[in-house]
Amino acid sequence: MITCTCVKGIEETYIDVMTSPMRHACVFTRINFSNSAGAGVRAMAIYRIDAVEDDHLAYVSPYLDSLSPALRSLNRAIHDNPELGYSEYLAHENLVAFFAHYDGWKVSPRAYGIDTAFIAEYDTGRPGPIVSFNAEYDSLPNIGHACGHNLIATASVGAALAAASCASEYSLPGKIVLFGTPAEEEGGGKIRLLDAGAYKGRKVDVSLIVHPGNVRDAALVSTAALSRFKVEYFGKEAHAAAAPWEGINALDGLITAYTALSVLRQQTMPGDIIQGHITHGGAVPNIIHEYAAGVFVVRAKRQARLQELMKKVTACFEAGALSSGARLEITPILTYLDHVPNKALGRSYRRHFNRLLSSASSPEIMTDHKHSTELPEVDRPIEPPEQDIIDGFSNASTDQGDISYAMPSLHPGFQIRCEVGPHTPLFAAAAGTDDAHARAIRAAKALAATALDVLSKNGYLREIKEEWERDVHHQG
Ligand SMILES: [Zn+2]
Ligand SMILES: [Zn+2]
Asked: Is 52-222+339-473's fold the same as 225-336's?
């Protein structure tokens, strides 16, 4: 038996608060309960609900508020011990240990022979959609968690646990899978898991992840396709003063190519990016340079455009070889596909996120949860799709792009308070604050509610997959 006191001071008694009609009109601040285990008073906030279909958000929101302190410790442990890609041993250990506290989760550490990858699975026991979350936890050299991947891990773990708990509570069908995906910055951990069959083997239907930034919140984040490769020129030594004509100058080959690339940049399209640095520029000035090398990165909005651009870029390197006589070798290091956001999934996330915004800023919400009060009073809602897709465009790249070509994917961006963007020391500091944590928890709520829509709404998964077919296979 549960007695609820709403903000207007009216008391009503229900057998089950989750099915009470009153919660559609009021916000509870105090709940007196008595059952076989005893009696007591529990203070909590249940957000205003206008429609039955939002039951799941009403469940995951207080659930994640109650989980937030434990997630804060996990977040701090990752943030304060930054580890580079494929060396995230502590993060792996902490994340795997975290799932041990929750019933029904099967956890596979060191998945597929990757030391710092893991998989956590929750099966409702009823056949249905299989929804996955990706958790990143690698940092950057010298500047720590400057990409805020500690917040990504926090949000994905929180969302997965909330979705599983709600699925159990409401007897929903399907499975929740959390992939611990290392080395996003430099090593493409998700691609290794994709190639190993981790997603296909589990028949995963959709993939969800969020990423912090310092720009406004967006559901439909797209990222650039990327190719990183090493360029080497092999020439021949000679005395640079006495007999330079006997040598072949490898550095000249590389400099000619660099200059040709600089010229090419004038003719590229918006979204085309060419970056590079010289790692080897010869030994000393008085020897003709036998070896020169550099690492280059080329990006474009879509994979098809990247391939076009790469033909022009390769021609510049060939020009360097032709003019200098040095032999050219190009060795691929890493390629990430562009991220194609799924608009159908984006609709759910946008709706849930904007509802949470209005709840948090509403004077009617008398929440007593300290983490919720740390959210800013006013945040900008995510714009409708036409503007959202513009707000969500980024020239950065991620291995979630490859995931988006393998299955429908959503990679919303959530704003944290920081004057500057990711990959800076200031952003690393901002990613460690309580405010950033609260924002990660809010993003996790919207993400969990999106996952629950996939599990519970008839025809929604079909709609998501049709959208994906159109975007990925018919646009190129
Ligand atoms: Zn990054
Ligand atoms: Zn990142």
From this structure: no
Determine the distance separating the centroid of ligand 2 and the alpha carbon of 208, expressed in angstroms: 14
> Which two structure tokens, joined as six digits, stand for 63?
């659930």
Compute, in angstroms, the gap from residue 218 CA to the centroid of ligand 1.
Answer: 17
Task: State residue 279's pLDDT score.
Answer: 98
Which CATH architecture does the domain made up of 225-336 adopt? 2-Layer Sandwich (3.30)
Length of the chain: 476
- Considering every ligand atom shown, identify the ligand nearest to the alpha carbon of residue 411 and give its number: 2
- pLDDT tens track for 329-362: 999 999 999 999 999 999 999 999 999 987 754 4
Q: How far is the CA of 158 from the centre of ligand 1 (A)?
A: 21
CA of 361 relative to ligand 2 center, distance in Å = 28
Assigned CATH class of 52-222+339-473: alpha beta
Rounded to two decimals, the pTM is 0.84
Q: What single letter denotes the amino acid at residue 393?
A: F
Handedness of CA 305, 405, 166, 51 (dihedral sign): positive
Residue 149 Cα to ligand 2 midpoint, Å, equals 6
Amino acid at 195: D
**DSSP string over 215-277:** S--BSS-BB-EEEEEEEEEE-B--BTTT-GGG-B-HHHHHHHHHHHHHHHGGGPPTT-EEEEE
Domain ranges of the chain: 2-43, 52-222+339-473, 225-336
Task: Say how many Å lie between the CA of residue 240 and the centre of ligand 1.
Answer: 43
